[in-house]
From TrEMBL, chains A, B, C:
Residues 103-183 form the Mannose-1-phosphate guanyltransferase C-terminal domain. Belongs to the transferase hexapeptide repeat family. LpxD subfamily. Signal peptide: none annotated. It is an enzyme of class 2 (transferase). Its EC number is 2.3.1.191. InterPro entries: GMPPB_C, Hexapep, LpxD, Trimer_LpxA-like_sf, UDP_GlcNAc_AcTrfase_non-rep. It comes from Flavihumibacter fluminis. This is UDP-3-O-acylglucosamine N-acyltransferase. Pathway: Bacterial outer membrane biogenesis; LPS lipid A biosynthesis. It holds the Pfam family GMPPB_C. It catalyses: a UDP-3-O-[(3R)-3-hydroxyacyl]-alpha-D-glucosamine + a (3R)-hydroxyacyl-[ACP] = a UDP-2-N,3-O-bis[(3R)-3-hydroxyacyl]-alpha-D-glucosamine + holo-[ACP] + H(+). Keywords: Acyltransferase, Coiled coil, Lipid A biosynthesis, Lipid biosynthesis, Lipid metabolism, Repeat, Transferase. Homotrimer. Residues 319-346 form a coiled coil.
Length: 350, 350, 350
């Protein structure tokens, strides 16, 4: 792909100085860039490179005053660094969009329905009766089980495993190694101390605009559905157990876990390594601190909690501070005991 | 597969009403089902559908009194919902059992021995001298290293990685993305601050009827074996370090971790996100609460512990409650200090 | 491969007794070994087998006094068990080194550059412009994204996923299922409560001699690089967020997590399931206890901390002990209150 200075200026709201028809096809650092490449200058410390670079186009800060003539076409923006990052990001999106077709070998069941502009990376497995929307990109080594549905524009990164019957919406991002739809952890204790597996015949529903990090696990429901609502963002290595519901725009940080059948409201923030027991509900807007252990339902919206077991944030902090000062507290108690003992002794002497 | 009403009734201990020879080949919701499908009616709210459904067979509660004639064959059971779920589960088991053969491409070393009725999904890798029993099902994208043995009826889900020399028994279920037999975390500190890897030349032995969740990790022993005993149930994202032994029918919930060389007894319950240090032993029947940190051996069977560091459950709960009330405790202490100060002052005045 | 007794003696610093030209090609237990196999005898309890074994070579302790003539060639060493383990480990290394070539099918982009003596297991994916050094071994089902660079002698185990643009050095070991370079967890809150993804356009740099366990996740930087410095050792299921830097020879145990932009010094030890918040720095030589939650920078080198929130190890232990004794503390307080109340009452009566 080739872009002209004027096209790029349009993308980043910049102003061209010099040859608006100059074109580039790739990126380079200002000190190494060659003709046909785009570079940027953000740190004034490196201004000298601007006058010697071979880059065809350079993005610079709008307030930079040139000390010499510059060979490259310039694009002036308020913040060259941010503009360059934005451009790189748009470029990557564009490249992902251009991924289309199949890298052989792939395994696609005859009964699967694949939309337009879909990318199937090498060693991707598509099971029976799978339905994949338009513009979906599935990276190599991923497994899509029977009857799974995936909506338009969703991206499945490398090595993701989605079990049979799960449903993913549109514009979802699932990162590498994540497992969706594994069996819920349900076992009925038997008289002899062994456990009998409770069949897990539900599924997982992931709604639109959800992002799920790498190596996370979301179990299928025993019966019914484990649900991740629209706009929720889940980080790496998180565990969502069977029949859990995660609300709209709820954010769960890395290594946190939610036990079975718990219902988490909308716009909840759950810190890293936090744990939530099963069969409770968490009100909208709740903030759960990292490493907290939530053992009871939180009914009041917008509550903040911390600790394990978790309770109200402000008083928990105060308790934690006092807990740290327990040696001091104990010393004060001991002194009092001495004094009272003395008073008692004196009283007897009266 | 086609099943008659009488066959189905046999499977779920039901009683046929109507045409016992009616046959079905798939499932449907009562309001959407077509001829040749099986449906169920559990909620009396939806009874109307029973009189209009096109389903060929409907499972209903035994106490339901019909208000109109029904076209479909009926199967009466104590609880239609449970019966339907049981049936669905048996159907899925049957379908898994029917998975047989290889989905090309697979990679199977010439020296591997594969039993009867085995399923190898696409992109499965089977290394040298691997021995796989009868009726084993290995889902796509899984890796079975050299010399691994897998017993009859074991199911390996998608993208599982089993390193060389590990041994799995019969009737095991390993969920997607789990790693068995990775190197134990052993490094010898060197004089210059760097670490030298201690070779990990043992293996992992998983006994019969074990279930292991998704994206879990079980390290191979330094020398000898890391062992998961018969009937143990391990949830998602759990970590079992080198040379650990997990006892019979022990249950470990999601994201818990067991450090190296620790021996866990039989029928132990370990809560989610709990951690257990290395080189200790945990008595049979111990209950370890979620997020606990066990730092010492537990010698008394059937002990319950909680907290980090973990101690006796009942007193830990009492300490936790008091810890939460520390601000109150401190206030009482301060008041006492005032009173005693006053008493002391008065004494001087005497 | 065939080895003579004198070659093996050289490898393990042993002394041959008997036929130095005796050769073996594999290992066996002393009681089962056949001609052409190597066995060892460490436990004197099994000495009888030494006189009946068919093994061609047996490793024994140097102080063992023979009661009968032995057919096998003997190699005497200070500790037969350790010597055998060392040998097994060297043998495995050798076998890994001998893995060379491609197990078809693999997917290798035309623009990729692959070094000498490289092994690509079946179903390995190598993206565009990837550069792979000499003697690199990539096990089956792994994904190497576009523009990734991997240095000499690095081993990538089965099912590893490395995203585009990441750079791995030499002599690195990455265990199965690990993800390197997934998007950092960055989302900008919007006015309507939803979140907008912040593009993650940086990469991950892993320096030489690093070991990373199984199913770990290391996110790419937002801009710039997430860096794992030379000699660091990371265990299974650990999470390293975007823009984190992990210092030289730092050790992170299983299931620990480091939040975004935190900088961890050299020779730091982080216990299992510990968590570290974002945007702080941890001094060289810090020791962080298992399950700790570090919420503030640690500036003093070689500090030891524990607890959540974490503070100084020694005083934390004292506070924890007192915390456990809170019921006792409260009892003492109550007694004092009674006594003071009594004193006050008496005073009034004076």
């Amino acid at each position: 792909m080739q872009f002209s200075a004027s096209q790029i200026a349009l993308l980043i709201n910049g102003k061209v100085e010099g040859d608006a028809q100059a074109t580039v096809g790739s990126f380079g650092k200002i000190e190494e860039a060659k003709a046909g490449q785009l570079a940027f200058l953000a740190n004034p410390k490196y201004e000298d490179h601007l006058y010697t670079t071979s880059a065809s186009i350079v993005i610079i800060n709008e307030n930079l005053e040139l000390r010499q003539p510059v060979r490259a076409a310039l694009i002036r923006v308020p913040d060259a660094y941010t503009a360059f990052a934005t451009l790189l990001s748009k470029y990557q999106e564009l490249k992902t969009q251009q991924l289309v077709g199949r890298q052989e070998p792939v395994y696609v069941a005859d009964s699967a329905k694949i939309g337009d502009q879909v990318f199937l990376g090498a060693f991707v497995y598509i099971g029976e009766n799978v339905v994949i929307g338009n513009n979906v990109k599935i990276f190599p080594n991923s497994f899509i089980g029977n009857n799974v549905r995936i909506g338009d524009n969703t991206i499945i990164h490398a090595g993701v495993k989605i079990y049979h019957d799960c449903q993913l919406g549109k514009n979802i991002n699932v990162h590498a190694g994540t497992v969706i739809g594994s069996d819920g952890f349900g076992f009925a204790p038997q008289a002899d101390g062994s456990f009998k597996k409770v069949p897990q015949i539900g599924n997982v529903i992931v709604e639109d605009y959800v992002e799920i990090g790498a190596n996370a696990t979301i179990d299928r429901a025993t019966i019914g559905s484990t649900i991740i609502r629209s706009g929720a963002k889940l980080d790496n290595l998180i565990q969502v157990a069977h029949n859990v519901e995660v609300g709209n725009n709820t954010v769960i940080a890395a290594q946190a876990g939610v036990s079975g059948s718990t219902k988490i409201g909308n716009n909840v923030m759950i810190g890293g390594q936090a744990g939530i027991v099963g069969h409770i509900s968490i009100a909208d807007g709740t903030k759960i601190n990292a490493q907290s252990g939530v053992s009871k339902s939180i009914k009041q919206p917008n509550t903040a909690v911390t600790g394990s077991p978790a309770f109200d944030y402000t008083s928990a902090l105060r308790s934690q501070a006092l807990s740290r000062n327990l040696p001091d507290l104990e010393k004060r108690l001991k002194e009092l005991e001495q004094l009272v003992k003395q008073l008692l002794a004196e009283r007897v002497n009266l």
